[in-house]
Design brief:
By secondary structure, the chain is of the alpha+beta class. The protein has helices at residues 9-21, 35-49, 76-86, 109-121, 136-151, 158-167, 199-205, 209-212, 218-231, and strands at residues 53-59, 93-99, 125-130, 193-198. Helix 3 links the parallel strand 1 (53-59) and strand 2 (93-99). It is globular.
Length: 243
């Protein structure tokens, strides 16, 4: 059996599908690049598989950052994915789903809710749906996640472990995996909620995309993001909408 020393949960997820469901599932992965190669790679895959709809799923919510927030989280790779799929105008559907609200400590949540309100005005917010432990789809999700954790115990997903904890009814500074024990967690019932958006509306509000569009390498995208954010007047933090 081949052993991976780096994080590669997709490999073990494919193993789980075969062992649990007797299904040979191909999981396609993209190398980290700038926008132009990523757009090209998406187009090749769309043509190869005959895809007519893409729903991007963000583990976390920093894909909803516009770029002018003081605490935008780690929005760069999310922005590149949004840009690439937004370019695929041939698709009949382009959507974005976010799961794990409250997990990322580096995100300004007051601005997150402000952004969701703006997307609602833009008719870009499409509703929510919560995971619960009695859902067959959730039961499969938890089994698959715990299988990948067992295969790579040094690399459990903070997002997935927090979502599972929340669905199980845990609350506050609860740690499902050892990886998080040195940090403070705020497990809450908000974490298992999926938030759905029209991807085109999110792309229009992202202030980084116009300048990221012509990038080729991931290092170049980082420099562009820093330049764009350096030129922006960052928003002041509004009152936080939750106690």
């Amino acid at each position: 059996m081949e052993i991976f020393t780096d994080y590669f949960s997709e490999y073990y997820l494919s193993q789980w599908f075969l062992a649990e469901r007797n299904e040979y599932i191909t999981i396609w992965c993209f190398e980290k690049t700038g926008a132009r190669p990523l757009i090209k790679n998406y187009r090749v895959l769309v043509e190869h598989l005959g895809i007519d709809a893409i729903l991007l799923v963000d583990g976390g919510i920093d894909s909803l950052m516009f770029g002018d927030e003081p605490e935008p989280g780690t929005m760069l790779e999310d922005s590149l994915s949004i840009l690439a799929v937004d370019e695929l105008r041939i698709l009949k559907f382009r959507g974005l789903a976010c799961l794990g609200l409250g997990i990322e400590h580096e995100v300004g949540y007051a601005h997150l809710f402000e952004n969701i309100a703006q997307l609602t005005k833009d008719n870009g917010f499409k509703g929510v749906s919560a995971l619960s432990k009695t859902m067959p789809c959730y039961e499969s999700y938890e089994r698959a996640v715990m299988y990948t954790f067992d295969q790579q115990p040094d690399h459990p997903s903070v997002i997935c472990s927090s979502v599972i904890s929340a669905v199980r009814g845990e609350y506050g500074n609860y740690h499902l995996v050892k990886r998080t024990e040195e940090s403070v967690l705020n497990i809450s019932p908000l974490m298992p909620i999926y938030w759905f958006f029209d991807l085109k509306a999110v792309a229009r509000r992202n202030l980084l995309l116009p300048q990221l569009r012509l990038t080729f390498t991931i290092d170049e995208t980082w420099r562009v993001m820093q330049k764009v954010r350096g030129d922006l007047a960052l928003r002041k933090t509004p009152p936080f909408p939750l106690p």
